Amino acid sequence: xxxxxxxxxxxxxxxxxxxxxxxxxxxxxxxxxxxxxxxxxxxxxxxxxxxxxxxxxxxxxxxxxxxxxxxxxxxxxxxxxxxxxxxxxxxxxxxxxxxxxxxxxxxxxxxxxxxxxxxxxxxxxxxxxxxxxxxxxxxxxxxxxxxxxxxxxxxxxxxxxxxxxxxxxxxxxxxxxxxxxxxxxxxxxxxxxxxxxxxxxxxxxxxxxxxxxxxxxxxxxxxxxxxxxxxxxxxxxxxxxxxxxxxxxxxx
Length: 252
What we know:
Largest sheet: 6 strands, parallel
Order of helices and strands: HEHHHHEHEEEEHEHEEHH
Radius of gyration: 19 Å
Distance between the termini: 24 Å
CATH topology of the largest domain: Rossmann fold
Strand content: 5-15%
Helix content: 25-40%
Number of domains: 2
Strand order of the largest sheet: 3-2-1-7-8-9
CATH architecture of the largest domain: 3-Layer(aba) Sandwich
Shape: globular
């Protein structure tokens, strides 16, 4: 753990990569574990371009939006925000679409898979509030359109946003240390960022409750709660006062 903390403190360009496991400690389900969102479901039937406009698509993403509204960032999110504010963390690249990194105050967030802060028309791009499904608004209200509305996320079979992906690659290429948290590292091209970090000589640290296929590339691997480890890191670097400040403002 001491070497882990020293790597973070001594890094010149620390980049964080996060996946669904980052938010499970906020109460959100992940995707691929037992009981995850894809357990017993075929994601291509409810989360692909072909599914847009089906009842299953609308019901699934209405459920996801309602779930997000019931939860909030956890202490791990706030540690990353603190690391950024202190100039240690330079960028955060995430697979997550929950927006919790921004809610906790992190500024330099690259959402590789999109977000669910609002909905958009699948044809004309008109924006709608995230709660539109709650009001039974499932189709564009423009008389000349009437196409289904959807979250601006990357569905299965869709390409990544090129600007977001290019920015993510550039950050990893500049990094000397990459901190990977809460991702199974089974979904490409995101998992390829860890391989890129290895190729460019970055130190790689992985925090995940279970092993990943790319653990062998890491300099340090910890199979433990992300919030627990990040809290220990923050306390070691910043002392105990940083956590007391969060509690005073009811952020955790």
